[in-house]
Protein backbone atom coordinates (compact mmCIF):
# COMPACT_ATOMS: atom_id res chain seq x y z
CA UNK A 1 0.00 0.00 0.00
CA UNK A 2 1.30 3.46 -0.88
CA UNK A 3 1.12 6.39 1.51
CA UNK A 4 2.34 9.97 1.38
CA UNK A 5 5.58 9.29 3.24
CA UNK A 6 6.33 12.36 5.31
CA UNK A 7 8.74 13.56 7.98
CA UNK A 8 8.48 16.01 10.86
CA UNK A 9 11.16 18.60 10.18
CA UNK A 10 11.77 19.60 13.80
CA UNK A 11 15.45 18.44 13.66
CA UNK A 12 16.07 21.14 11.02
CA UNK A 13 13.52 23.70 12.22
CA UNK A 14 15.70 26.76 11.58
CA UNK A 15 16.46 25.99 7.92
CA UNK A 16 14.91 28.10 5.14
CA UNK A 17 12.48 26.42 2.78
CA UNK A 18 14.74 25.89 -0.21
CA UNK A 19 17.44 24.22 1.90
CA UNK A 20 14.91 22.15 3.83
CA UNK A 21 13.09 20.99 0.70
CA UNK A 22 16.25 19.59 -0.83
CA UNK A 23 17.19 17.84 2.40
CA UNK A 24 13.76 16.23 2.85
CA UNK A 25 13.45 15.05 -0.74
CA UNK A 26 17.01 13.77 -0.63
CA UNK A 27 16.06 11.51 2.29
CA UNK A 28 13.27 9.99 0.20
CA UNK A 29 10.22 11.81 1.60
CA UNK A 30 7.51 13.53 -0.44
CA UNK A 31 5.68 15.10 2.49
CA UNK A 32 6.62 17.12 5.57
CA UNK A 33 5.15 18.48 8.75
CA UNK A 34 6.88 21.70 9.71
CA UNK A 35 7.01 23.42 13.10
CA UNK A 36 5.52 26.91 13.24
CA UNK A 37 6.84 27.90 16.64
CA UNK A 38 8.83 30.70 18.22
CA UNK A 39 12.03 28.63 17.91
CA UNK A 40 11.52 27.77 14.22
CA UNK A 41 12.28 29.54 10.94
CA UNK A 42 8.54 30.22 10.54
CA UNK A 43 7.12 31.64 13.76
CA UNK A 44 3.42 32.17 14.56
CA UNK A 45 3.95 35.93 14.46
CA UNK A 46 5.51 35.75 10.98
CA UNK A 47 3.47 32.85 9.60
CA UNK A 48 1.16 34.91 7.39
CA UNK A 49 4.17 36.50 5.71
CA UNK A 50 6.56 33.54 5.61
CA UNK A 51 4.57 30.31 5.37
CA UNK A 52 3.25 30.63 1.77
CA UNK A 53 6.73 31.18 0.32
CA UNK A 54 8.22 28.54 2.63
CA UNK A 55 5.78 25.88 1.47
CA UNK A 56 6.25 26.92 -2.17
CA UNK A 57 9.98 26.28 -1.79
CA UNK A 58 9.30 22.79 -0.46
CA UNK A 59 6.82 22.03 -3.25
CA UNK A 60 9.44 23.07 -5.79
CA UNK A 61 11.55 20.20 -4.39
CA UNK A 62 8.64 17.74 -4.61
CA UNK A 63 7.67 17.96 -0.94
CA UNK A 64 4.08 18.66 0.10
CA UNK A 65 3.45 20.20 3.54
CA UNK A 66 0.86 18.00 5.23
CA UNK A 67 0.53 20.00 8.45
CA UNK A 68 2.14 22.46 10.80
CA UNK A 69 2.92 21.84 14.45
CA UNK A 70 1.76 25.05 16.08
CA UNK A 71 -1.06 26.57 18.09
CA UNK A 72 -4.63 27.63 17.37
CA UNK A 73 -4.17 31.37 16.99
CA UNK A 74 -6.04 32.92 14.08
CA UNK A 75 -2.89 34.05 12.20
CA UNK A 76 -1.78 30.41 12.00
CA UNK A 77 -5.12 29.42 10.44
CA UNK A 78 -4.87 32.32 8.02
CA UNK A 79 -1.31 31.42 7.04
CA UNK A 80 -2.24 27.77 6.48
CA UNK A 81 -5.13 28.72 4.19
CA UNK A 82 -2.90 31.03 2.19
CA UNK A 83 -0.18 28.39 1.95
CA UNK A 84 -2.51 25.48 1.17
CA UNK A 85 -1.61 23.59 4.37
CA UNK A 86 -4.57 21.43 5.41
CA UNK A 87 -3.98 20.90 9.13
CA UNK A 88 -2.61 22.33 12.38
CA UNK A 89 -1.34 19.70 14.84
CA UNK A 90 -1.68 20.33 18.58
CA UNK A 91 -1.66 18.32 21.82
CA UNK A 92 -3.89 18.56 24.88
CA UNK A 93 -1.68 19.62 27.77
CA UNK A 94 -2.50 18.79 31.38
CA UNK A 95 -2.05 21.50 33.99
CA UNK A 96 -1.47 21.40 37.77
CA UNK A 97 -5.24 21.53 38.37
CA UNK A 98 -5.64 17.90 37.33
CA UNK A 99 -6.89 15.83 34.43
CA UNK A 100 -10.59 16.67 34.46
CA UNK A 101 -10.07 20.44 34.68
CA UNK A 102 -7.34 20.30 32.04
CA UNK A 103 -9.55 18.38 29.63
CA UNK A 104 -12.37 20.87 30.13
CA UNK A 105 -9.94 23.70 29.37
CA UNK A 106 -8.59 21.93 26.28
CA UNK A 107 -12.13 21.29 25.10
CA UNK A 108 -13.01 24.99 25.42
CA UNK A 109 -9.96 25.90 23.34
CA UNK A 110 -11.02 23.48 20.64
CA UNK A 111 -14.58 24.80 20.69
CA UNK A 112 -13.22 28.34 20.39
CA UNK A 113 -11.16 27.20 17.38
CA UNK A 114 -14.14 25.60 15.62
CA UNK A 115 -15.24 28.80 13.82
CA UNK A 116 -11.64 29.34 12.68
CA UNK A 117 -11.32 25.78 11.38
CA UNK A 118 -14.57 26.14 9.46
CA UNK A 119 -13.94 29.68 8.26
CA UNK A 120 -10.41 29.10 7.02
CA UNK A 121 -10.94 25.51 5.85
CA UNK A 122 -8.02 24.24 7.94
CA UNK A 123 -8.36 21.15 10.12
CA UNK A 124 -7.19 20.75 13.70
CA UNK A 125 -5.37 17.49 14.44
CA UNK A 126 -4.94 16.45 18.07
CA UNK A 127 -2.13 14.04 18.96
CA UNK A 128 -1.87 12.01 22.16
CA UNK A 129 1.43 12.35 24.00
CA UNK A 130 2.88 10.59 27.04
CA UNK A 131 3.38 12.48 30.28
CA UNK A 132 1.54 15.72 31.01
CA UNK A 133 -0.86 15.45 28.09
CA UNK A 134 -3.92 13.47 27.13
CA UNK A 135 -1.89 10.35 26.46
CA UNK A 136 -4.11 7.89 24.61
CA UNK A 137 -5.85 7.89 21.25
CA UNK A 138 -9.12 7.05 22.98
CA UNK A 139 -8.64 9.97 25.37
CA UNK A 140 -8.29 12.25 22.35
CA UNK A 141 -11.45 10.73 20.82
CA UNK A 142 -13.34 11.56 24.03
CA UNK A 143 -11.93 15.08 23.95
CA UNK A 144 -13.18 15.57 20.38
CA UNK A 145 -16.57 13.95 20.89
CA UNK A 146 -19.29 16.05 19.31
CA UNK A 147 -16.97 18.38 17.40
CA UNK A 148 -17.33 18.30 13.59
CA UNK A 149 -15.40 15.34 12.16
CA UNK A 150 -14.52 17.28 9.02
CA UNK A 151 -12.68 19.89 11.09
CA UNK A 152 -11.23 17.93 14.03
CA UNK A 153 -9.02 14.92 13.46
CA UNK A 154 -6.92 12.46 15.45
CA UNK A 155 -3.18 12.21 14.87
CA UNK A 156 -2.45 8.59 15.80
CA UNK A 157 1.11 8.06 17.05
CA UNK A 158 2.72 4.61 17.19
CA UNK A 159 5.14 5.35 20.04
CA UNK A 160 2.64 7.11 22.28
CA UNK A 161 0.04 4.42 21.59
CA UNK A 162 2.53 1.81 22.79
CA UNK A 163 3.62 3.89 25.79
CA UNK A 164 -0.05 4.09 26.77
CA UNK A 165 -0.18 0.28 26.70
CA UNK A 166 -2.50 0.15 23.69
CA UNK A 167 -2.61 -2.03 20.56
CA UNK A 168 -2.89 -0.51 17.05
CA UNK A 169 -5.25 -3.31 16.00
CA UNK A 170 -7.68 -1.93 18.57
CA UNK A 171 -7.04 1.81 18.60
CA UNK A 172 -6.75 2.45 14.85
CA UNK A 173 -10.21 1.06 14.02
CA UNK A 174 -11.69 3.03 16.91
CA UNK A 175 -10.23 6.35 15.67
CA UNK A 176 -10.71 5.57 11.96
CA UNK A 177 -13.55 8.04 11.41
CA UNK A 178 -11.32 10.91 12.55
CA UNK A 179 -7.92 9.60 11.47
CA UNK A 180 -5.96 12.40 9.81
CA UNK A 181 -2.25 11.53 10.03
CA UNK A 182 -0.36 8.50 11.32
CA UNK A 183 2.91 9.25 13.12
CA UNK A 184 5.60 6.59 13.17
CA UNK A 185 8.22 6.60 15.89
CA UNK A 186 9.18 4.09 18.55
CA UNK A 187 10.17 4.02 22.21
CA UNK A 188 11.12 1.87 25.15
CA UNK A 189 11.13 2.49 28.89
CA UNK A 190 14.67 3.17 30.14
CA UNK A 191 15.84 3.18 33.74
CA UNK A 192 17.33 6.57 34.56
CA UNK A 193 19.28 5.48 37.64
CA UNK A 194 20.03 2.18 39.36
CA UNK A 195 17.08 1.01 41.38
CA UNK A 196 19.23 -0.63 44.03
CA UNK A 197 16.95 -2.48 46.38
CA UNK A 198 14.10 -0.06 45.85
CA UNK A 199 10.96 -1.35 44.20
CA UNK A 200 10.39 -0.07 40.68
CA UNK A 201 13.14 2.47 40.21
CA UNK A 202 12.91 5.50 37.90
CA UNK A 203 11.99 5.07 34.25
CA UNK A 204 11.51 7.39 31.29
CA UNK A 205 10.56 6.96 27.63
CA UNK A 206 13.59 6.52 25.39
CA UNK A 207 13.01 6.98 21.66
CA UNK A 208 14.66 4.40 19.42
CA UNK A 209 14.70 3.29 15.77
CA UNK A 210 11.48 1.77 14.51
CA UNK A 211 12.55 -1.86 14.75
CA UNK A 212 13.69 -1.64 18.37
CA UNK A 213 10.79 -0.36 20.45
CA UNK A 214 7.46 -1.29 21.99
CA UNK A 215 5.37 -0.21 19.00
CA UNK A 216 4.65 -2.79 16.29
CA UNK A 217 4.89 -0.81 13.06
CA UNK A 218 3.99 -3.84 10.95
CA UNK A 219 0.76 -4.35 12.89
CA UNK A 220 -0.09 -0.66 12.56
CA UNK A 221 0.59 -0.51 8.83
CA UNK A 222 -1.30 -3.74 8.30
CA UNK A 223 -4.26 -2.31 10.15
CA UNK A 224 -4.13 0.83 8.02
CA UNK A 225 -4.29 -1.35 4.92
CA UNK A 226 -7.38 -3.09 6.29
CA UNK A 227 -8.97 0.29 6.96
CA UNK A 228 -8.10 1.58 3.49
CA UNK A 229 -6.29 4.59 4.96
CA UNK A 230 -4.43 6.54 2.27
CA UNK A 231 -3.52 9.66 4.23
CA UNK A 232 -0.05 10.78 5.25
CA UNK A 233 2.27 8.61 7.32
CA UNK A 234 4.79 10.84 9.08
CA UNK A 235 8.09 9.69 10.59
CA UNK A 236 8.78 11.91 13.56
CA UNK A 237 12.58 11.77 13.50
CA UNK A 238 12.74 11.56 17.29
CA UNK A 239 15.64 9.54 18.69
CA UNK A 240 16.98 9.88 22.22
CA UNK A 241 20.51 8.67 21.44
CA UNK A 242 22.40 11.44 19.58
CA UNK A 243 25.24 9.10 18.63
CA UNK A 244 23.86 8.42 15.11
CA UNK A 245 22.85 11.27 12.76
CA UNK A 246 19.08 11.63 12.59
CA UNK A 247 19.24 11.61 8.79
CA UNK A 248 20.85 8.16 8.75
CA UNK A 249 18.26 6.76 11.12
CA UNK A 250 15.39 8.27 9.13
CA UNK A 251 16.59 6.69 5.88
CA UNK A 252 16.70 3.29 7.59
CA UNK A 253 13.31 3.76 9.25
CA UNK A 254 11.68 4.92 6.03
CA UNK A 255 12.97 1.82 4.23
CA UNK A 256 11.67 -0.39 7.05
CA UNK A 257 8.28 1.31 7.07
CA UNK A 258 7.90 1.09 3.28
CA UNK A 259 8.84 -2.56 3.40
CA UNK A 260 6.35 -3.29 6.17
CA UNK A 261 3.64 -1.52 4.18
CA UNK A 262 4.49 -3.40 0.99
CA UNK A 263 5.38 -0.15 -0.75
CA UNK A 264 7.69 -0.18 -3.73
In brief:
The chain is built from nine helices and ten strands.
Order of helices and strands: EHEHEHEHEHEHHEEEHEH
Q: Would you tell me which CATH topology applies?
A: TIM Barrel
Q: Strands of the largest sheet, in order across it? A: 1-2-3-4-5-6-7-10
The top-level CATH class is: Alpha Beta
Number of domains: 1
Structural class from helices and strands? alpha/beta
Radius of gyration: 18 Å
Distance between the termini: 9 Å
> What general outline do the C-alpha atoms trace?
globular
Describe this protein's structure:
This is Sugar phosphate isomerase/epimerase. One of its GO terms (molecular function) is isomerase activity. It comes from Streptomyces iranensis. Residues 26-240 form the Xylose isomerase-like TIM barrel domain. Keywords: Isomerase. The chain has 264 residues and is of the alpha/beta class. It has one domain (4-263): TIM Barrel. Helices cover 40% and strands 22% of the residues. It contains nine helices and ten strands. The protein has helices at 17-26, 47-60, 74-83, 99-120, 137-144, 158-163, 168-175, 217-227, 246-261, and strands spanning 4-8, 31-35, 64-69, 87-91, 123-127, 152-157, 179-184, 186-193, 202-208, 232-235. The strands form two sheets. An eight-stranded parallel barrel has the order 1-2-3-4-5-6-7-10, surrounded by five helices. Strand 5, helix 5 and strand 6 (152-157) form a beta-alpha-beta unit. It starts with a strand and ends with a helix. The mean pLDDT is 95.
